[in-house]
Amino acid sequence: MTEQTTLDVILLMLAIFGLLALLTIVAELIRIRLPLGQTDPVIEAFLMRIHTWWGLAIILSIAILSGAFMVTLLFAFVSFAALREFLTFTAKRRADHLSLVLGFFVILPLQYLFVWLDWMGLFTVFIPVYVFLLLPILSAVRGDPDQFLVRVAETQWGLMICVYCLSHVPALLTYEVPDGADRSLLLIIFFAMVVQLADFVEYYAGRSFGRRKIAPAISPKTVIGVVAGVAASALIGALLSWITPFGILGAAAMAALASVTGILGSIVFAAIKRDRGVKDWSHLIPGHGGFLDQLDSVIFAAPVFYHATHLGWG
Amino acid sequence: MPADRSLLRQLAARAVGHFLALTARLITAVRAEWRGIEPVAKQRIYFANHVSNADMPMIWTVLPSSMRRNTRPVAAADYWLKNRLRAFVGPEVFNCVLIDRRPETRTNDPLKKIIEALDEGSSLIIFPEGNRNTTDEPLLPFRAGLYNIGRQRPDIDLVPTWLANLNKIMPKGEVIPLPLICTVTFGSPIHVEEGEDKEAFLKRAAEALVALAPKDRRSEK
């Protein structure tokens, strides 16, 4: 990393930590004002989320300051945790055991290896083409036709979502910024901030002012919440345009694109959870449910953001 | 633990135990759901469904270490004494109550050993199906052991303990475990009622256990 990039990363981290500190203090002040023996569940949930944000921000900071390799490794582990949550709820029989073991222990590491080596021609087709053909063969050869198409389709969906899509976040690192500087690490911070901020604003604005629901049978997300989330995200995107190659308007547009894809993506995940009858994917992240509950928007937005970056500024 | 084992050996057993629990957590993110009881050190008999060799270590992992110290799995002697490694892990790391499951050759009565362990104050983990369940049914018919123990020590809580997903994590015959999320659900305790006969009690115990299984429409297959 060049000195300028490191300096910018540290500056951004300090800004994020400052924002978190502010939110923590405000929430604690509200909590102090409550009479003794009384608790407000909204504040408690908010504080728990903020505490988790602290953890996530610190882990991501350390990974980014350690360089591209650690970021790729971090996302490989996150992919593993996400895939574990997803495949816990999919249809599978004993005949799929080998396919699933390969998914976790061979396909996932290979995908991140290809990303790390910047073999773009391979990592963009490995899971959608080769794995897509190979795993059903393995399951079929072991000979159990019961629910066959459901099993292979759900496994493939899990790998696409949890491994393929998510690997596009560290794949941003291989994007070469036109002016030649090593600014791609900053692009990850930009992406993570605009998508997560949109989620955050959408959640609270939608709760407070939202009326019309987008998909009432699936998710409580409202039109106003989504509009507010995307607008906030575009605004922050424009403010952060100095760390991107997009320019002010371009940064706002990229932020809006990423956040709208992300919010709609989390409606897709809500539909899957409704179908499987679960509220959260797991309990591994306090206040957020599982990794997938936290990352659903990032997963959907990552490939779109990656390709838009290459198409618009490649 | 018996005093005849050297301190070093006991420390090694503790270290291996922590390592196994950590591995179980890393692979399956195993989690306890205390639905019918609190995680407090009270004498209990946990009876669980049995689908894989990883069952007992999973329950053992989710018990808080204060409870783990006094909880002894009841396990088959022929399995755990097969080689020196197992003879260390079974009796010393897990502190198993080893019973001989071959009635024709055995010299001591399994029930007597189990009651002795209870009278020393230990909690127990038992698998009343007796064998690993490889069928599509949720449970195999229970053996009489649970009833006999419950009748001889009627005051001790019998806690139904459901292990979800382990048949997918490690189906019988597979070597590499699949890292799926495993949940251990502890239900409300049951007891053998006054005058209750064996069949009625075992049926009630099996129903209490199956009732803890997740209601996912897919896991019923």
TrEMBL record, chain A:
GO biological process: peptidoglycan-based cell wall biogenesis
Keywords, in A-Z order: Membrane, Nucleotidyltransferase, Transferase, Transmembrane, Transmembrane helix
One cellular-component annotation, GO: plasma membrane
Keyword Ribonucleoprotein attributed: no
Transmembrane segments: 9-32, 52-83, 95-114, 120-141, 148-173, 185-201, 222-243, 249-272
GO terms, molecular function: nucleotidyltransferase activity
Protein's name in the database: Phosphatidate cytidylyltransferase
Organism field: Kangsaoukella pontilimi
From TrEMBL, chain B:
InterPro entries in the cross-refs: Plipid/glycerol_acylTrfase
GO molecular function per UniProt: 1-acylglycerol-3-phosphate O-acyltransferase activity
UniProt KW Metal-binding keyword: no
Pathway: Lipid metabolism
Keywords: Acyltransferase, Transferase
Residue ranges constituting the Phospholipid/glycerol acyltransferase domain according to the UniProt record: 44-166
GO terms (BP aspect): phosphatidic acid biosynthetic process
Keyword Mitochondrion in record: no
Name this polypeptide is given: 1-acyl-sn-glycerol-3-phosphate acyltransferase
Organism, scientific name: Kangsaoukella pontilimi
